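Re: beginner question about structure tokens

> Can someone show what the tokenized structure looks like for a real chain? I only ever see the sequence side.

Sure, here's an example I had lying around. Input first:
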Amino acid sequence: MPSETNLQDQKELLIDGQSPADSFLHDFLGFEGTKAKCVRPRGFVVFSEGQPAKGVYVLATGRAKVSISSSEAKTVILRIAQPGDLLGVNAVLQGRRYETTVETLERCKVDFISRSDFLKTLDNSKRARLWVTRALSSEASELVERARSLLLSQSAAEKLAGLLVKWCDEQGEVAPEGIRVNPGLTHEEIAQMICASRETVTRLFAEFRRKDIVSFAGNGIFVRHLNALESMVCR
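And the corresponding structure tokens:
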């Protein structure tokens, strides 16, 4: 579930009931004429690793995966972007190429702000600078936690258990069958989050289900014994 601090931050940044993304865009002088608002389907690549950073994207609705790839086409998902997240900020600020690939996980509304407009607004708006600072700080904290999970965990089972515990904390809904999470990810995408193979993830889910730790219904994963997963996670 969202922390009390995060909820307070969102309340402070809302403008007349607007979403976090609208609150940020409000700071852009004439932003209605400088941003391109598009609705994108699942699987749409917003930008790719190595492309010139022409501007910043704001995820207004929906979720997107942020990933990096090796020359051997091995992919690691660094994080799942949420509504209100800024995408491509670091590359734009440094005048470098995009460092990651962003692909939508569901139908999303995406806003675009050109690099020149973005930098101009940062020069003129203290509020925008505060928003960007918070966004970069939050992203850095999330990447530290991802690194902790990937590098300190001893096995794929431990990594998957940690991911399920994280989802329970962030989006879990209590149901008769257990704590329901709906990540909306394929086994391949989950494997890319824990640096494992799709076959390993499928095998581990089958093992967890056999031990009655999780069950499945529709698109949902039901965590039936959270304590069992927590006991597997490296602390």
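Each token stands for a local structural state, so reading them left to right follows the chain. The CA atoms of residues 56 and 89 lie 6 Å apart.
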